[in-house]
## 1
Amino acid sequence: MIRVILPAHLRTLAHVEGEVQLEVEGRVTQRSVLDALEARYPMLQGTIRDHVTRERRPFLRFFACEEDFSLEPPDSPLPDEVAKGKEPFLIIGAIAGGNVGWCKGPKFSSGGWTSHRAAWGVGPLQH
């Protein structure tokens, strides 16, 4: 069972709360996870990947085990922890522009994905 955490706007579109759990056949890769996600939630087709090129949309990022997989080839295997359901595959809406100094909250490098759970609406804030 693969666990996927979607940004709030995609959870709303898919009519889901919290994380999504998916069955993925074969190797667990970005492509296989996104194929399974779009098959189960067809309303998400074209929101994460371009309809034609199937490439990641510019303002979305993919994370697994506190690492950015956004620029990895889509058929590269995801970490075993994701494949085994111990860690989620995160799809995060990127924020462009602005001043970096305004944000004093936890960052991926220091707090890991768990420190961002409240911002994504999937659990309490952990420091």
## 2
Amino acid sequence: MWGTTLCGGLERYAAADEKLEDMSDTPKFEVIDRRKIKAEEERESGAATPPAQPEKPAAPVQSGPAPGPRLVVNEAARAESGRDAEDREAAQAAEKQLAEELPPAPTAEESSKSKAAYDASAQRIEDLIRAQNPAAGPQPPVGFEHLVQQFYLSGMLQMGAGTQEGQRPRVDIMGARATIDLLGVLAEKTKGNLTAAEDGMLQSVLFELRMAFLELSSMVTVPNVPPTTKGS
């Protein structure tokens, strides 16, 4: 009995010994302190992350209406506007100077008497002419169209119109320019105060005179005269 018990104890001892040997071959587990790893991770993240910049104060919100679009002025247009303003100022200064140099305007009574005397004198001259030439009829009244025709004839004659064939035309180019400019002043000053027929005639005459001036001025040449030197 004791032999059997002993044998059984030896067998259990041998089995336990084999089991211990098997457990010694398995890998051992290592206990890791997670607090140290977490501290290291926090130090590394702190070194990699740049320091936070202080926040800028927000811009104050305007309580008034938002500004509208800004107008960009072209420099060329601004210079042109400045020149126009200078021209107007120069014209006003010249007009003021002319008004100061002229004698005072006649009164309404003086103008009325002068017109009556003129009409009587003109009628007397017309009666004398008709007495010398009974076939001549009365002179037609002078109207706006006669004024425009007078400017037209003066300008065309100054540009050599009406010259007989074979003769050299006598041209007054600067006089023609002055006549055309005077007619332009008349058109500007009477704007809005003419009938449709009067305005049409005035614009037609101005157009023809200006085109004739352009054609004539294109043919004008200046001879090449050598400059004179001192002592020659």
